[in-house]
Amino acid sequence: MNTLDQIEEFLRLPAPGPRVQPVVYDGEHVWLGSWETLRLYEMDPDKWTVLSESPTPGRMYGGTVIGDELRFVVGKGDDDDRYVCRFIPGHGFKNTECFAAPEFTGSQLAFDGDTLFLSQAGNKRILALDSSGKIIHEIPLSRHPVGLTVVDGCFYLLTGDDELDEIRLTKVDARNGHPVETDMAAVPFGARSLAFDGKHFWTCHRDNNEVVAFTVPM
């Protein structure tokens, strides 16, 4: 196997709270969660200031944008059971509008304009879900996903080995029904969560309390 080039960091910024995860870009602002404060922060990406913050119903893992709203994977209870919860900017989380993730597991979310996708790191797969959380179909993966977004009809993931180390940026083209995986670059730190702003990818260096924007080497 050829050695992968590393991602090219564009920005490395301090997180507004410790143990940051996830990161979501809504077209204008960056949304970040903190595992320690259990709060969700809306960030101005240019000034890197906090515009708003909201309490979360549990530890958040991944998120995505659906129209004017957001969805987040939230861990609840002693067993850290995973739920997909609705968040409305300016109003907060709708705790009555959550559904259980399949098998109560999953961590990352993406939305392609029509379908919500949930990745499961332990099961090494991406699930397409209906509005109630039932599985429509699944996409098997060769590595464990720890970040997920959709760009130009393809999935881009952060993937790890069995120890969730050796992180890579991986492209998965599943449009013809036969998924094709391509490792794009090596990520030299323990990245979690993935977003795309049209030019740069964003991720969390959770254990360093930092947010990183990066590009893929040519």
Tell me about this structure.
With 218 residues, the chain is mostly beta strands. The protein has one domain: TolB, C-terminal domain (Neuraminidase, 6 Propeller), CATH 2.120.10.30. Helices cover 0% and strands 59% of the residues. It contains no helices and 20 strands. The strands form five sheets. It has a four-stranded antiparallel beta sheet with strand order 1-20-19-18, with no helix packed on it. A hairpin with a 4-residue loop joins β7 and β8 (81-88). The model has no long low-confidence stretch (mean pLDDT 95).
Order of helices and strands: EEEEEEEEEEEEEEEEEEEE
Helix content: under 10%
How confident overall, as mean pLDDT?
95
Shape: globular
Please report the first level of CATH classification, the CATH class: Mainly Beta
Helix run count: 0
Low-confidence sequence ranges: none
CATH architecture: 6 Propeller
Structural class: mainly beta
CATH topology: Neuraminidase
* Largest sheet, strands/sense/barrel: 4 strands, antiparallel
Radius of gyration: 16 Å
Number of domains: 1
Strand order of the largest sheet: 1-20-19-18
Query: Percent of residues in beta strands?
Result: over 45%
Distance between termini? Answer: 18 Å
Q: How many E strands?
A: 20
State the fourth-level CATH superfamily. TolB, C-terminal domain
